[in-house]
Design goal:
180 residues, 6 strands, 6-stranded mixed sheet, binds guanosine-5'-diphosphate, alpha/beta
């Protein structure tokens, strides 16, 4: 077995761009980006590296309704269990929110869950597609209670490296057994 990598988990309600952020961090498409909510049902993971720190990036597709119905429990059954386990194992959580929607009631629910988890959280204020929206992002999401807020636009592949610069500070350096 290789050395166990520290986990960076991407969390958030459906349709905010978790899979897009996952892909942007990895710079190639593995996860599924889709218009419809709940398309990525299972957690998708891939090893990656940033400034010499190796980690496992996990897209927790499951924090949300699975069948498109409204009023379905945000964290029901197995999905909740699966996401909880990943969150427990993660050293840092990237909480993706959508600048175009602002804070929704589902975001509030995710926030309650993450506060209880007690892990470092970096808010990724995604869909900040123009300068104006990006500048407002910190003010928009400050009330969620986490200090680190980084605007990104996956559409314009913008803000991802700044996001990772903040996220990576929470990742311990793990010695690789076999460096190439
Ligand atoms: P997830 O459900 O949180 O994994 O969200 P997805 O990554 O599947 O993205 C949901 C939708 O938002 C897709 O149609 C994406 O193309 C779109 N999307 C993702 N990032 C951005 C962004 O930065 N700006 C805009 N305008 N749309 C985005
Ligand atoms: Mg997804």
């Amino acid at each position: 077995m290789p050395v166990q990598l520290p986990i960076i988990a991407i969390v958030g309600r459906p349709n905010v761009g978790k899979s897009a952020v996952f892909n942007a961090i990895l710079q190639h498409r593995i996860s599924i980006v889709h218009e419809q909510s709940g398309v990525t049902r299972d957690c998708v993971m891939a090893p990656a590296e940033h400034f010499g720190k190796h980690f496992l990036l996990v897209d927790t597709g499951g924090l949300g309704t699975l069948n498109g119905e409204k009023n379905v429990d945000l964290f029901d059954g197995m999905i909740r269990e699966q996401v909880s386990r990943i969150v427990e194992e993660a050293c840092v959580l990237v909480w993706v929110v959508n600048c175009q929607d602002g804070i929704t009631s589902q975001d509030e629910e995710v926030g309650d869950f993450l506060r209880k988890a007690g892990k470092p959280v970096v808010i990724c204020a995604n869909k900040a597609d123009n300068q104006e929206v990006a500048q407002m992002a910190v003010g928009t999401f400050a009330s969620l209670g986490f200090k680190e807020i980084e605007p990104t636009s996956c559409t314009h592949t913008w803000g991802i490296s700044q996001l990772m610069d903040v996220v990576i500070k929470h990742v311990p350096k793990v010695e690789q057994e076999e460096e190439e």
